Amino acid sequence: MEKFKEYIFNSVRTDFSKYLDFKDRANTTDTKKRYIDDLEVYIQDHLALRILIEDYTDIFNKSDLKAFLTSRKSTTAKYAISNLLHFYHFNEKINDSFFLEIKNELKKYKAKKPKELDFLSADDFKFIFGSALELIDDNEKTEKQQLRLILFMSYNYMFEQKHLFNLLWADVDLQNRLIKNVRSTSKGLSQDKFEMINEIYDLLISLNGRTKKNNNEYVFDYIRKDKNSINNLLGILNNRQKNYTRLSSKVNLQKIIRSRILLDLIKSEGKSLIDFYNIFGLTKDTQITTAIKEYLILDKSKMSNEF
């Protein structure tokens, strides 16, 4: 019995992988990998725990399928199981009746569609970086400066929350007005440092003074202790009616980054892309990928309207 279980598992990992390569609609390497990854979770977290796996139909036990497809939220999870079902049906390991039964069972589980990501406009950025933000009282001036510093760093250097939280004073050269690209990799494919714009320099001095800091101290030490601190500061934009009604959408750092990339791509007709890869390196990043996709959609729409 255990040998049969192991045989089944190895079949999924090897023969099924080959089956994906020779389907009528060939899968991309990335999609194929996600199918295999999803099925590995199904094997390890569900099938491997089963005492009885006596034939191929046991692979598609309905209680296991329910547990897997309600906990595994990736968009490929359902299709990985569906492809596996077709694989064993094609190889006559399961009969037509069982194939249709499980195919209908899978219809109960709708794949979760990825959330459509939105973007900020050029007018949004004019307001965000302008001086018209509504404050409750003068005591919020420090919070406004902290918010502006975070937004400027996110917009100019593509810094997300984790980058801001891990930024050390060793990464900041106030004298030469340089700041380390904390996204920089050891492969050397991305630039090491950024020139510090005047707004960021002035805010760093205003919030921290000119006294030299310990290199091991965090620049944003005052907000590192609370993971919600950046969201609380963003609340000045997102949760105040007089501010939020001036914006087309709520603001977060990921949106700042992808919107900046998109607007630069539009302005440069795509020529600025290399500048962003110089910042990000060649590591896969959701924000740059999303911005490129949106730019291509807009560009294609523009070309269609010209004909």
Oligomer: single chain
Record the strand order, biggest sheet: 1-2-3
Number of helices: 16
Low-confidence stretches: none
Order of helices and strands: HHHHHHHHHEEEHHHHHHH
Q: Beta-strand level of the residues, as a percent range?
A: under 5%
Structural class: mainly alpha
Number of strands: 3
**Biggest beta sheet summary:** 3 strands, antiparallel
Rough shape? elongated
Give the termini distance in whole angstroms: 65 Å
Query: What percentage of residues falls in helices of 4 or more residues?
Result: 55-70%
If you average the pLDDT, what whole number results? 83
Using only C-alpha atoms, the radius of gyration works out to 26 Å
Describe the structure in your own words.
57% of the residues lie in helices and 3% in strands. It has helices at 2-13, 15-21, 29-45, 62-71, 77-90, 96-106, 122-128, 141-157, 161-165, 198-208, 221-224, 229-238, 241-244, 253-268, 273-280, 286-306, and strands spanning 172-173, 178-180, 193-195. The chain is elongated and about 75 Å long. The relative contact order is 0.09. The model has no long low-confidence stretch (mean pLDDT 83).
What key attributes describe this structure?
307 residues; mainly alpha; 3-stranded antiparallel beta sheet; elongated
Question: Could you provide a short overview of the structure?
Answer:
By secondary structure, this protein is mainly α. Helix content is 57%, strand content 3%.
Topology:
Elements: H1 2-13, H2 15-21, H3 29-45, H4 62-71, H5 77-90, H6 96-106, H7 122-128, H8 141-157, H9 161-165, E1 172-173, E2 178-180, E3 193-195, H10 198-208, H11 221-224, H12 229-238, H13 241-244, H14 253-268, H15 273-280, H16 286-306
Antiparallel strand pairs: 1-2, 2-3
Helix pairs in contact: 3-5, 5-6, 8-10, 8-12, 8-14, 14-16
